[in-house]
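seq:
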Amino acid sequence: MFRVRMLPADDGDCLLLDYGTEDRQHHILIDGGRGSTYAASIVLALKDIHGRGERIDLLVLSHIDADHIEGLLPLIEDPDLPGSVAQVWFNGFDQLSDLEILGPRQGDAFSDGLLKRAWPWNADFNGKAVAIREAKLPVINVVGGMKITLLTPTMKALSRLRSDWIEYRQSKTLPVDPDPVPAGLEILGPKLATVPGNVAALADAPDVEDRTVPNGSSIAFVAEFEGRRVLLAADAHPSDLLEGLRKLDTEELHLVKLSHHGSKANTTIPLVRAMAAKRIAISTSGARNRHPNPEAVARLIQYGPKELHFYFNYRTPYTEVWDSQAMRDAFGHECFFGEGFEMKIDV
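struct:
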């Protein structure tokens, strides 16, 4: 079995990959969502895993955006943490890591917690940055038969943030807005696709690609188990993902966790065509940036495979609009919503 669980993480990401057999499973935890996610969701999942006599075989903090790291800070600091973590992938300052708006403070806090825990840190990369260093993509075999192919980040992407992190350490000042919306990338209050007729126009809206430095530092990869492949895109830039996918020697992707919660700036037409995935997972409550952007979903419908399945972990005005009878009749897709504790997707 190979299952992806999208935990409710507000407008962020918190994913659990379960794989193995029903009797003996392995687990990869990716990101922690907002600060409330730990007590509301993560700790419950950890207790269940520990109760089965299992552990988190790999914890991945993709980058230090607040909506990915906040929920992992109480985890790293919990004196009564249920269970154990075998190893961690995280690019801290000493690994030429990334800086995030608000993130340097949190990144340093997570690094300090990791040192206290003494969990193996980037051991698969000899303690150095989890990054692409040469033309060939790194392939890591994780315990239990899971194969991970790293798609991003590059060392160049990580190095762009180092000077900012240094500046933060020297000044200890932070912007007023912890999660500013990059100018030109997001439009708050977008027109929703209320009728099938405007989907084509939304899909063909000009591509304005995300080039923010923190998102470019995301650890994004393809996880493969028993021939089933999932793209975990974090908040990676679409051009970087596209380059990685072109290098990837594999067949179809069976599931894609969309980059940056369905931002139009991270879901370009060339990337949609390259992914060619029929099942799309989008993790967000729609708070703050009101994701997923209608342009992103429209591009998937217009330029992706037919009969798409969309998996949303929240039902919001920005997700349920795609579940109208008119939309489903016109385009043949289906929508699934996480109505309770989590959204489970069997790969």
